[in-house]
Amino acid sequence: MAFCQVQWHSKVLGKALGLNVILPEVGKPPYPVFYLLHGLSDDHTIWHRRTRLEWYVRDLPLIVVMPDGFRGFYTNHENGPAFATYMAEELPAFVERAFPARRDRAGRCIGGLSMGGYGALRLALGYPEVYASAHSHSGALAFGHDPLQLNTSFSREWQMVIGDAPAGSAHDLFALAETRRREGNAPALRIDCGTEDFLIEPNRRFTAHLKTIGLDHEYAEFPGAHSWDYWDLHIQEALQFHARNLGLVPA
């Protein structure tokens, strides 16, 4: 397989960006695309540096795209950049021009960890016409739903992202899930979290909400904390989940 480091300029964000891409050597193009998102403190290089991702996808006819989401939570900021527009509209259009990628919903999936877990669900639930499936590892799934804790060191930064009253908005996964259930156009969803992870409680609350509203999803808890040992292990299950939904392996 081939590994590409891409530099390009986003008109939506108004800046140059890095992008890592894994290209398959099996199957025939055009290939489905998996967008894989990083967490708050990392960048587009981290999945390739901290996991065996390239080895795990070696037999899949799948393009893996790892974009830089900065600290933006992959949502359109109330006072700042439009990261959701960049991720769900501008980036796929660029990828589909530059690489032998499929250009339909059934050929796109998305996932991520922590901030990127929230981001993957925010994008998939907010843009159901773009992605066939989405997964979250250890996601910050109550971000955009719970009231901001204004006494933290990140309060001002988060206010710039989601505003003062995000509940019910396009930042709120609970509200987005209700809309998808009502309209009947949700992507396939998989969520997992470690039982020792500090984000386990919002993952349980969010998946309980999905169950209450009757939105189909997969949820699993495993031993582990908010760590690369956990993510390197469970990205393998997420890849199989997406491969089934993309029709790359038997369902």
Number of strands: 8
Low-confidence stretches: none
Count, helices: 8
Question: How much strand?
Answer: 15-25%
Helix content: 25-40%
* Strand ordering within the main sheet: 1-2-4-3-5-6-7-8
What would a concise description of this structure say?
This protein is α/β, with parallel strands linked by helices and 251 residues long.
Write up this protein.
By secondary structure, this protein is α/β, with parallel strands linked by helices. It has a single domain, classed as Rossmann fold (3-Layer(aba) Sandwich). It is 35% helix and 20% strand. The chain has an eight-stranded mixed sheet with strand order 1-2-4-3-5-6-7-8, sandwiched between helices. A hairpin with a 4-residue loop joins strand 1 (2-10) and strand 2 (15-23). The longest helix has 18 residues, at 228-245. The protein is globular, with a radius of gyration of 17 Å. The two termini are 25 Å apart. The model has no long low-confidence stretch (mean pLDDT 96).
Secondary structure elements and pairings:
Blueprint (H helix, E strand, L loop, with lengths): L1 E9 L4 E9 L9 E5 L8 H5 L2 H4 L6 E5 L15 H16 L9 E6 L1 H12 L6 E5 L17 H8 L10 H11 L4 E7 L5 H14 L4 E5 L5 H18 L6
Parallel strand pairs: 3-4, 3-5, 5-6, 6-7, 7-8
Antiparallel strand pairs: 1-2, 2-4
Helix pairs in contact: 4-6, 6-7
